[in-house]
Amino acid sequence: MISILIASQILSFLAIAALSVVIFALARQIGILHERLAPIGATQTQPGLEPGSAMPRIVMRTLEGGAFPIGEQLQRGARQLILFVTTDCPVCRRVIPLALGMAAEGKMELVLVGDGTPPEMHEMQARYGMGQTPFVSGPELGLVLQVSRLPFAAVVDDRGTLRAKGLVNTRAHLEQMLAAAPTEASDTSVFLPTLESAHAAV
Asked: Is the pTM for the entire model greater than 0.85?
């Protein structure tokens, strides 16, 4: 009888240990899925400067300490995509090469706004081979656009007008946002994506 009780106790202990391992594995998989799936869609998430408004002139700082103004008029027909990233964002690691590739194709002028320590940002700059792509820092622009999650993008047209903003995680989202900006300075009748329409397009 005692042997049966001991055996049942051992089996109970083994069952509890197995369940603990399963719960730990499930928690780990949920964390991985959370990193892969968020953020979803080029969606507008926070209030702040609205599309159609003129971007205020804000002077950011490059990694070398130089001044880099945001909100100035661009060359006729140009579009500027401002991409907010951080050194510890897993989705940013996927989006940065996509944006750099699109800029190399001449689809837009790319400006990267980084958040992190100077050594981390220098390492990120070298890792992705940013070359002449401006990589700036400073909290002011993020406050104006009310950036709360990353990677976050904003598109500015050649007149210095904000045309679209939102979270992004694929090339399709970046191209969708660029489609909201005119390619000709004379074209002002542009569709501005809302939360519902941007989500439906994805």
From this structure: no
pLDDT of residue 186: 38
> What CATH number corresponds to the domain at position 147?
3.40.30.10
For 141, phi then psi, to 5°, come to -65, -40
Q: For the chain, which residues score pLDDT lower than 50?
A: 33-45, 185-202
* Residue 10 belongs to domain spanning: 1-37
**CA–CA gap between residue 38 and residue 99 (Å, rounded):** 18
Interatomic CA distance for residues 97 and 103, integer angstroms? 10
**Cα 178 from chain centroid?**
15
What pLDDT, on a 0 to 100 scale, did the predictor assign at position 9?
75
Residue 154 lies in a domain: yes
Give the span between the Cα atoms of 92 and 183, in whole angstroms.
Answer: 26
Report the candidate in 72, 140, 81, 144 with the shortest Cα–Cα distance to residue 112.
Answer: 81
- Residue 43 main-chain phi, psi, to 5 deg: -110, 145
